[in-house]
Amino acid sequence: MTSKTHDGELRNTASIVFVAATLSIVAALCLPSAGRAQSSRAACDKTDTQFAVTAAMPDNADALRKYERNVSGLSGDVSTVMLGDSLVEAWPRELSASLGAGPVANLGVGRDRIQNTLWFIEHERERLRKIKPKSIVVLVGTNNIYLDKPCGVMESYQKLFDEIRSLWPNGKIFSIQILPRGEQMKGAAENIGSVNAELSRRSRELGIRTIDASDIACGRTTPCANYKSDLLHLTPSGYEALTRIAKQGIGSS
């Protein structure tokens, strides 16, 4: 029969506290990036820039299949191309069809970051150059906003717009600014505001026309009928509002 000494009990208690503290630290480090966006004032170093402008294969095979399906379905008479993430992919066809005078090709793929869209363009360049769109509508960047510094997001945009202009030199690029998101539309709001302001300020330099669609965000209050419960993706009414704003932006160019 054994008995625990007071010192032994203290050692056991200390061990438990140490393990609990360690697990808490590990858990904190493994939290999703939402809520820990990079500071909008943080400067980019060489590594940030390298990461921002390097095309990246998507992180899942389904995205590659969607790329292939999107490109294989292109017709030569496409007048408008849409590039972006799930917000573009889910755009109802009957609404997106009104964004161009002729056929509209929706090439959006869910979960894409700007670097993934860049990879798609670089790897499908030969097939994409067979079409000659008059307009290119871009809505991408919300998946960058929690991971990259705003200055890095701008580097990614500049690289993407350069590649689009190289591919379709006669097409006009319309960049829909990153949409508000999250509870009370405060999700990474400072960084989204910083990036959107830079897009507008540098639009001529970047060779784009920006479209501010933030009016769909219900006065930046939630719940919002234009957003699904995740406060990121849009409902049918949200897409109707987004389509109206996009058409106004394209038509006024």
Characterization of the model:
By secondary structure, the protein is of the alpha/beta class. It folds into 2 domains: 1-31; 38-251, SGNH hydrolase (Rossmann fold, 3-Layer(aba) Sandwich). The protein is built from 11 helices and 5 strands, in the order αααβααβααβαβααβα. The chain has helices at residues 6-29, 46-53, 61-72, 86-89, 93-96, 114-123, 125-128, 150-167, 189-201, 203-206, 236-251; strands at 80-84, 104-106, 135-139, 172-176, 209-211. It has a 5-stranded parallel sheet, with helices on both faces. β3 (135-139), α8 (150-167) and β4 (172-176) form a beta-alpha-beta unit. α2 (46-53) runs parallel beside α8, α6 runs parallel beside α8 and α8 (150-167) packs across α9. The longest helix has 24 residues, at 6-29. The radius of gyration is 22 Å and the shape is globular. The termini are far apart. The relative contact order is 0.13. The model is unreliable at 1-6 and 16-34 (pLDDT under 50).
Secondary-structure map with pairings?
Layout: H1 6-29, H2 46-53, H3 61-72, E1 80-84, H4 86-89, H5 93-96, E2 104-106, H6 114-123, H7 125-128, E3 135-139, H8 150-167, E4 172-176, H9 189-201, H10 203-206, E5 209-211, H11 236-251
Helix pairs in contact: 2-8, 6-8, 8-9
Short description:
This protein is α/β, with parallel strands linked by helices and 253 residues long.
Biggest beta sheet attributes: 5 strands, parallel
Global mean pLDDT: 89
* Tally of DSSP β-strands: 5
Number of helices: 11
CATH topology call of the largest domain: Rossmann fold
Helix content: 40-55%
Radius of gyration: 22 Å
CATH architecture of the largest domain: 3-Layer(aba) Sandwich
